[in-house]
Write a structure and sequence with these properties.
Blueprint lengths: L3 H13 L1 H10 L4 H4 L3 H5 L7 E2 L14 H18 L8 H22 L8 H6 L9 H11 L11 H4 L2 H23 L5 H19 L6 E6 L5 E7 L1 H8 L7 E5 L10 E5 L10 E5 L2 H13 L4 E5 L5 E2 L4 E2 L6 H4 L9 H6 L7 E10 L5 E7 L11 E5 H7 E7 L5 H6 L5 E2 L9
Parallel strand pairs: 4-6, 5-14, 9-12
Antiparallel strand pairs: 1-10, 2-3, 4-13, 5-6, 7-10, 7-13, 8-9, 10-11, 11-12
């Protein structure tokens, strides 16, 4: 119990701390990320990059949780630009996000039916009824594209709701929880829920059409290339557009993670279903050391391919200056000399940190010993953030706060490829915060 005598002593200690008094004054009118910023340390991360993959412009997910999808689309659009000679191009995030939400809703309803026999206070039941959100992973984007294709942004532009998803997602999640509860109760009464589930999905589809627009099924793709030649592609479908202008085999990309936690050793192949978007699919990951992930990312950049990656963007970042670096943001100092460091595995297990944001690596630089000392990042926060949309992270940030990356299968070593031949071990649903 906190006593009044303790509070009196706390007041006295605070009033005796001149540094705390000064920090109180500074905190009163300044954003913490700006107050903590250490310009001279950040300056060490400036300069050119020895290896850099050329990309074509910054996109903006705006006020939505679609970073994972934009990062995947930003890789795929480079293939469109190569094939068309365009200097600027964007895929439709609205189109793919529409089907992502529909698939996630279906997955929740399927799980509610499959797990209906569990009691209400069972951990799995609670997990299912927790609903879903905008977030996701590379393999979820790949599954969407394989099933639904892709379309240019011009064929299905953004709507206000697609770029400001908080309120809509709140209402949609409420609807899906209500539907999941109804289906669960039907199964527990011995009734067949199939017809009712289809009615629910039809309603969810209609609600999404109202918010985002009806997903386009056929469209024309006209463009003028860099040589001034006009091209007309009539009556394309999302599948034919993907096959013609993107054509990547998304199954060739492997999710590698660095999750140094007990029970999940290095060189470990695992899968989980419950946070994916498709009822028929699983998320599969290969857990590797950070040395291996660092090496694989460098090799992919050297091969001219950007790297989709997931990190904790809330740790040691300054959005205005486009920096992620523990040495460039002294949060411990501006909070009176506290200690915030935890080892990577402990941060994950305690849910103090997780992969909260996805972007693409497009460059890396090396120190005099040939070690990577900074990484160039293409973000999806628009050109107003960072250095006209581009960010840089330090080696220290990369090794501590990057948790996953997507690597082309051709770049994996023999032993790493051999791990993929194993049957992956499925981890529980409530290990979501791993990702």
């Amino acid at each position: 119990m906190i006593t009044h005598e303790q509070i009196r002593r706390f007041h006295e200690l605070y009033r005796q701390d001149r540094n705390a008094q000064a920090l109180t004054a500074a905190m009163a009118g300044t954003a913490m990320s700006d107050l903590a910023f250490v310009p001279l340390n950040a300056a060490k991360l400036s300069g050119a990059f020895e290896i850099e993959v050329k990309t074509h412009g910054i996109t903006a997910q705006q006020k939505s949780g679609r970073c994972w999808l934009f990062a995947a689309m930003n890789i795929m659009r480079e293939e469109v630009i190569k094939k068309t000679g365009l200097t600027e191009f964007e895929l439709s995030g609205n189109y793919l996000a529409f089907f992502d939400k529909l698939e996630k809703a279906n997955n929740v309803l399927e799980m509610a039916i499959a797990e209906a026999a569990r009691p209400q206070d069972d951990r799995m039941t609670e997990y299912i009824l927790n609903g879903f959100h905008d977030g996701g992973h590379w393999c979820m984007a790949a599954d969407l594209v394989r099933k639904y294709g892709a379309v240019p942004k011009s064929a299905m532009p953004e709507s206000y709701q697609s770029t400001h998803t908080e309120t809509f997602m709140d209402k949609l999640t409420f609807l899906v929880r209500k539907d999941a509860w109804e289906l669960r109760e039907m199964v527990r009464r011995g009734e067949d829920p199939s017809a009712r589930k289809e009615e629910m999905l039809s309603e969810i589809f209609r609600v999404e059409c109202i918010a985002f627009g009806e997903p386009v099924a056929q469209f024309d793709f006209d463009y003028t290339d860099a040589d001034g030649v006009y091209h007309a592609n009539r009556n394309m479908t999302p599948a034919s557009f993907y096959e013609t202008f993107i054509g990547l085999d998304l199954g060739d990309y492997i999710t590698v993670t660095n999750h140094p936690t007990p029970g999940k050793p290095m060189d470990y192949y695992y899968s989980f279903h419950y946070i994916g978007n498709m009822a028929e699919g699983n998320v599969r990951c290969l857990n590797l050391s950070m040395d291996e992930i660092e090496d694989l990312c460098i090799r992919q950049l050297k091969a001219g391919m950007p790297v989709w990656f997931g990190c904790d963007s809330d740790c040691y970042g300054n959005r205005r200056n486009g920096i992620w670096d523990p040495d460039s943001l002294d949060y411990e100092g501006i909070m009176g000399g506290i200690e915030l460091y935890m080892e990577k595995g402990a941060r994950l297990q305690s849910h103090a940190s997780y992969s909260s944001h996805a972007m693409i690596l497009i460059g890396v630089n090396f120190d005099e010993n040939g070690e990577p000392n900074r990484w160039k990042i293409e973000n999806s926060w628009g050109e107003e953030a960072g250095q006209k949309g581009y960010f840089v992270c330090s080696k220290k940030y990369f090794r501590e706060y990057v948790y996953e990356a997507i690597i082309h299968r051709s770049l994996l070593s023999g032993p790493q490829l051999a791990l993929l031949d194993r049957e992956p071990e499925e981890i529980p649903a409530w290990h979501y915060d791993w990702m």
